[in-house]
Amino acid sequence: MKRTWRLKTAAAALMTLLIVMLAAGCGPQSQGKIVEGKVNVVTTFYPIYEFAKAIGGDDANVINLLPAGVEPHDWTPRSQDIVNTSKAQLFFYNGAGLEGWVPQFLKGLNRSSKVKAYEVSQGIKLIEADGEDEHEHHEGEGLRHQHHVDPHTWVSPKSAMIMAENMKNSYIEVDPAHKDAYNERYLNLKKRLEELDREFTGKLDKMPRKEIVVSHEAFGYLARDYGLTQHAIMGLSPDAEPRSRDLLELSNLVKEKGIHYIFFEELVSDRLAKTLASETGAEVLVLNPVEGLTEDQLKHGDDYFSLMRNNLTNLILALQE
Ligand SMILES: [Zn+2]
């Protein structure tokens, strides 16, 4: 009797908790509020947020939609995001098919909204999806998972430079009075990106191995710009299930070429990377597609540059003879 009662109490408590969570709009919220007297900028996800802050400086208030620890491929906005974006002057999104929700979202903004939306990947030579992504087209999953181009532009410092320049131009368009300040901060960011680019080029050029095995296909631009070949367990979306044939082929490739490391990433399950590694005798290492920061990385003060430099360190380790 007592036990049943306890179970009932526990069940009731759980229900209450659930109701409270639903009422609060459970799950992580985007951070930030509109600030009067500044250029308010809404960004879709982390790297764009970081670059927008670097270029906007004191003249801008930047609100990022995606909270820490959230993977951007399947995220969709909430009502507060519509309120904030309607009041903002700028809306920066990656484009290249990453945020499939954007057209619908922009249509849903307040009619009085004067926000200008910019696809910051404009001008980057995009990588076409290779057509071998049938496994992404599961029935019932809808268009969100069908990428026709690789959306992961920011993972290469070379494309990040183009994105930064686009953002600078957009700032100057909506706030020409502070043109010089935007320009100066942009040049500073550009210099840091050029340094990063030189490190990647210089170090990866010398590595004897050129092939990387990754969990989700997020390193196409990095591979293209720095002479690597990417083999991915999963497709362009990290939640697509691989076909067993892919895993078998990859496993053979890893064994044949004697590849030492399988890369995985923090925001996505490492199950398949670990399976492949244990099957082939390889080890696992992190390669971060910089799609968002984890809570830990946030506390640690990590940013695009520190995560990309960690990536370079791990690439050097993996690409040794
Ligand atoms: Zn991705």
TrEMBL record:
Q: Which GO terms describe its molecular function?
A: metal ion binding
Q: Name any one Pfam family assigned in the record.
A: ZnuA
What biological-process GO terms show up in the record? Answer: cell adhesion; metal ion transport
- Matches recorded under CDD domains: AdcA (cd01017)
Report the superkingdom from the record.
Bacteria
InterPro entries to which the protein is assigned, alphabetical: AdhesinB, Bact_metal-bind_prot9, Lipoprotein_PsaA-like, ZnuA-like
Please tell me whether the keyword ATP-binding is annotated for this protein. Answer: no
- Signal peptide position in this chain? 1-23
Could you list the residue ranges that cross the membrane? none
Key words of the record: Signal, Transport
This chain belongs to which protein, by name? ABC transporter substrate-binding protein
Species this chain originates from: Paenibacillus albilobatus
